[in-house]
Amino acid sequence: MYIMVLGATMAVAVIGLSVLTALRIQRRGAEGTIDFAQARLYAQSAIEIGMLRIENDSDWRNTYPSGVWEENKLIGTGMYTLEGIDPDDDNLKNNETDSVVLTGTGYKGEARYKLSVTLVAESAALTCLEVSLQAGADAVFEDPATAWGEQIISANNVIQAIGACTIYPACESVNGFMGAVGPGPTTSGITPREMPDPLTVFEYYIANGTYIIPPSYRIDKHLLSPASNPFGPTTNPQGIYVVDCLGNDLTITKSRIVGTLVILNPGPNSEIKPSVHWEAAVPNFPALLVEGAILMDVGSEPLTESSTINFNPPGTPYEGVEDGDLDDSYPAIITGLVYVSGNLQTANTSAIEGVLVVGGTLQSTGTLTLTYSQTYLTNPPPGFGNVTHMVISPGTWTQVVD
Questions:
Q1: Who's near 317: CB < 8 A, 6+ residues apart?
Q2: Is residue 388 scored above 80 in pLDDT?
Q3: DSSP string of 239-255?
Q4: What is the per-residue DSSP string for 282-294?
Q5: Which element (helix H / strand E) includes 140?
Q6: Domain count within the chain
Q7: Which residue in 36, 93, 112, 357 has the most C-beta neighbors within 10 A?
Q8: Using only C-alpha atoms, what is the Rg of the chain?
Q9: CB 51 within 8 A of CB 102
Q10: Are 42 and 165 found together in one domain?
Q11: Does residue 392 sit in the same domain as residue 319?
Q12: What is this structure's pTM?
């Protein structure tokens, strides 16, 4: 009987110890779950702190360089670490439109949680993108100039017609008109439209472009695109190519360009001659950026292939078609945003489908056909918008496991 009682007592003791052990395990598990939830909350709070830093500091890209912004900071009963990284080039300072990946790490006890989100720049387009043609100074049309289009021609000084000119689009100017501008309607006394900063508008494209040196500074019977660079071994996935003319005259003729061509330091006789077919590779990017002045004559005759050049080989389709033959033709036109920081002269025939922005004076002596595109107003490219604030890119909240 004594042995039976002793055995029962031991069994009860073992059961009691087992219950206590199970309760301890449950308590530790509950504490771990609570710690994990708090660590996650601290990680999210770290990101919200980063967003607040950005919102309250207009110079945040210089204040907080790419890397760790805050490390092991106390929060509640735990800690957090905050990082801000430029995912493109690890340099937040070089471009106000660069995105930033904020990563918050929360700590509570032995629990750790890491969370990230991407913020992108939201820009308000410069008002020069509201019209089909914007001149920073004057827009001058000289006999026998003709301008076609259904959108607005605008100048931040005056619009002038010299001799027998025909200007069908509506014309708006800050300081009035000279000569017989029309028959399109005219409006003077407008608020000057915002223009790109000529010192910074090229920065993004230079930083992300591929430099090329065309022989004798001539782009003649060439195809330039994200898949084709006849002037070097390296192509550019965005189709951004930079030509530093070093004061030499640059000639572009009988070529197809699919991309953004950046022309720096062009000589005084630099020109675009017939026939060219030109479009940006990135839908809202400029087709042409000129630092200085240039003469434009896109031409009326179509660009045709010959025995030496195929303008839509594999990798560079035209209207979805790529082939190996040499019997295609392409309309002479520039499709995209064109920006010239200095003066622009247009002669004979030029057609632009997009927006034409001239920092100085436009002088037209030929037929200029303008077809407006709102693409650049609704989604301004780098250099053509005022960054208002950074916003969360949808779908980028991610738990980071490392």
A1: none
A2: no
A3: -EEEEE-TT---EEESE
A4: STTSEEEEEES-E
A5: strand 139-142
A6: 2
A7: 357
A8: 31
A9: yes
A10: no
A11: no
A12: 0.77
